[in-house]
Amino acid sequence: MSPTSKSRIDRLGERLKTGEVSDDDLRELDTYRESFAEASKEVVAAIRDVTGLEPGVRPAKTTISIIEKLHREKTMKLSQMQGIAGCRVVVPGTREQDRVVGLLGRAFPRAKVVDRRQKPSHGYRAVHMIATVRDKLVEIQLRTELQNLWAQQSEILSDRIDPRIKYGGGNQAILKETSTWIVALEAEEATYSKMAGTFSEPTAKGYKRETLQNERARLEKLERDIAEGKTRLIETFKELNKLFEERPRKVN
Fold first, then answer.
1. What distance in Å separates the CA atoms of residue 129 and residue 140, rounded to the nearest whole number?
2. Exposed end of the chain (fewer CB within 10 Å): N or C?
3. Is the pTM of this model over 0.85?
4. H or E element, residue 115
């Protein structure tokens, strides 16, 4: 994006913040959204190439979502807004998540990495990478299966109960509780993965038979605990959805 066009986009962003939006402004914003398409395709192709995974391509942010974000974050410039276009990669657990982050870091060496596992955003945990391609910011959301489950549930609750939930408003209790629950489950998964690599054949050679029996029994118990924990979490979300399924949807 040239300095002139960047300045123009930022001026558009300032007009959108005022709430006095003309039809011409909306058309210009829509054109800007569409300008991310080729960069997004390039990022998706690179992810397939370096990881062998199939990203989920999400639609570009709607004009309404962009305007709402500008209203929430008053100092943000439209040309610097992240997440207008992007994709999502879902992997089984945190060890695979770390591995894929490393692969993508080599594919996009200048990408900004935002690790929301260490500093969750209102309970939301994931790793986001912001790659600059064709002078466009393209967001890669890298989630574990559990993190993705939580994010989907957050969307449902935001839709059913209170749109502010996603941004730290409303009743956060259930989301904070389940986010903490997922942290514990993922820690158990990481322990299981490490133990499985240590005490499985043929890497287990050199350990006493009694040690192997004890550790493998511990491994089996840990596997059961993880499976039971995931089942309870899923059932909790199902019950929560059932509780609110009769409520009318909130209109943002």
1. 5
2. C
3. no
4. strand 112-115
